[in-house]
Amino acid sequence: MNEATEMLNDLFKDFERSTRKNKNLTFKRGKPLAIKQPRVLFEIDDLEQIEFLCCHRTAKLSLLSKTITPFCPYCGVN
Ligand SMILES: [Zn+2]
Where are the domains of the chain? Predict the structure, then answer.
């Protein structure tokens, strides 16, 4: 998506440059298209709270890290 936006911006730049000397055709480039920020991969909703019995504390783990053995961030026990 970002690459396409940058391509469009370049295209407008080239087009503006190529029409600058043509009096019958004027093209003024406005603001450059906004380039979207990359999406945050893990949002709060994707996190799941897991209770670690070893420390009697809870920690939030992403769904991805649930596929491996949960790892206690407090004492390091699996
Ligand atoms: Zn622990």
Answer: 1-38, 40-78
